[in-house]
Write a structure and sequence with these properties.
Elements lengths: L9 H4 L6 E11 L6 E11 L2 E8 L14 H9 L7 H10 L4 H18 L4 H9 L8 E8 L12 E6 L5 H22 L13 E2 L6 H10 L11 E6 L6 E3 L18 E3 L7 E2 H14 L2 E5 L7 H11 L4 E4 L7 E4 L5 H8 L8 E3 L9 H8 L4 E5 L6 H14 L28
Parallel strand pairs: 4-6, 4-15, 7-11, 11-12, 12-13, 13-14, 14-15
Antiparallel strand pairs: 1-2, 2-3, 4-5, 5-7, 8-9, 9-10
Helix pairs in contact: 3-4, 5-11, 6-7, 8-9, 11-12
């Protein structure tokens, strides 16, 4: 349940006149990822009969096609001028009903939340507790992006990227020590392979590599850490973020070639995880099962298209007892990957309805420098957090978590051991009894 800002007690009562929104300003700023513009949102309020500029926000986005229009700011101001700044829920309700882009809504909602926190001289951690009842502080397992390949990179491999996560039971600090060692060793390895030139970074902060098979990403990392006292499968594990929708197509069931001696696939779903080799669901599932057995894979993210329900059932029947399966669009047999969207109230109400210990809290694909998600990670209750790689703009998120840990001391982990889902076959439709 959401805790209303109308009952926050002494901090609210100290204002003789409740602070209200005067103007929400938008400024064009260059994206750190391209030549396109983003909008930085800034909130100015009437506080004790004078105007005060409070907080700003420049949020990330998940698509290169995501556009922000300064003309939307007029509609925002029409909706919010004179609204109490301390009423986050009221502000967000007005944003949801306004006809502006989701990115504008989330930017304004974020700036208002930060302003609210500042006015009450409250940390963002405490503000999450006050506003959204996210009180208990526990640490998620970090999942660190390390290699990026996929459809838009050189080579025939179409599986999107590879991440790593530390073994279970470690503190955040110790887990990040291992992650950083693997990341740095991989960076040096790729640098040597590239004639001493630093590898390019993807928007995720992962190293862009060219490979013709997904396993090559894993092989390179294992080779990179070969001289360290760190071992895949014991000290750290791999997370394969497939983004299967990028290499998915559909056919009429029964079309296409079948393996010799095997029946034709009845699935309409086809995948070319290796460019030019279009194969049915069953073949992709066989491949994924094989690399779980051989390559220290602990988790898949988006391994199949979200509409491939039969495929997820088949995959879960083969690997769910030893491999975590996540999906950004929740499907049967998977755990959720959650990103902030629309407004903070909308997002965090939805988050609290999920099985949070089995959920990944994920940063935007194109982060722009806002670090508020790091504070949320400590109170979200999510079992995992995926912030990207350890270079570029992503460093701000990791640095923020490190600062919070140093300020508040070590906190207990959300999960201390992996919890694999028990496979439950889909219910068989009941056959009506014949009339006697």
């Amino acid at each position: 349940a959401v805790v209303s800002t109308q009952s926050t007690g002494e901090e609210l009562d100290k204002f003789a006149t409740k602070p209200t929104i005067h103007v929400v300003s938008g400024y064009n700023v260059k994206s750190v990822h391209s030549d396109s513009d983003r909008i930085s949102v800034e909130v100015t309020c009437h506080v004790q009969n004078h105007k005060e500029v409070l907080e700003s926000a420049t949020i990330g986005h998940n698509s290169a096609d995501d556009k922000m229009d300064l003309d939307d700011m007029k509609a925002v101001n029409d909706a919010l001028q004179g609204v109490p700044i301390l009423g986050q829920e009221c502000v967000d309700e007005k944003l949801v009903s306004s006809e502006v882009s989701p990115s504008i809504k989330l930017s304004v909602s974020t700036a208002v939340f930060k302003s609210n926190s500042r006015l009450q001289k409250m940390s963002l951690l405490d503000a999450y507790g006050q506003q959204f009842n996210l009180i208990e502080r526990k640490m998620p397992v970090p999942i660190v992006s390390i290699m990026s390949s996929g459809k838009h990179a050189p080579g025939k491999n179409n599986i999107s990227s590879l991440a790593i996560m530390p073994k279970q039971g470690l503190s955040f600090e110790k887990g990040m020590e291992i992650m950083e060692s693997v990341y740095k060793a991989t960076e040096e390895y790729l640098k040597k392979k590239n004639h001493n030139n630093a590898p390019s970074l993807s928007p995720l902060g992962a190293f862009i590599v060219s490979c013709d098979r997904p396993e090559q990403m894993i092989e390179m990392i294992k080779e990179a850490v070969g001289e360290l006292e760190i071992h895949a499968g014991s000290d750290f594990f791999f997370v394969l973020d497939c983004l299967a929708s990028d290499f998915h197509s559909e056919v009429t069931p029964g079309q296409g070639s079948a393996k010799k001696g095997q029946p034709q696939s009845t699935s309409r779903h086809r995948y070319d995880w290796i460019e030019g080799q279009i194969k049915p669901t069953e073949d992709l599932v066989d491949f994924l099962e094989g690399i779980v057995e051989s390559e220290s894979i602990l988790a898949f993210v988006d391994p199949l298209h979200p509409e491939d329900i039969e495929g997820y059932d088949l995959l879960a029947s083969k690997v769910s007892s030893k491999c975590l399966i996540f999906s950004r669009k929740l499907t049967p047999h998977t755990s959720p990957v959650f990103r902030l969207h629309t407004t903070l109230t909308t997002s965090l109400n939805q988050l609290q309805e999920l099985d949070r210990p089995s959920t990944i809290l994920e940063a935007a694909l194109f982060e722009e420098g806002e670090t508020m998600l790091a504070d949320l990670a400590l109170v979200s209750g999510c079992g995992y957090v995926m912030l990207g790689g350890l270079r570029g703009v992503r460093c701000g998120l990791y640095n923020r978590i490190n600062k919070l840990v140093q300020q508040h001391g070590p906190v207990q982990n959300v999960i201390e051991q992996w919890v694999f889902k028990e496979y439950v076959p889909p219910a068989t439709p009941a056959i009506p009894e014949a009339e006697s």
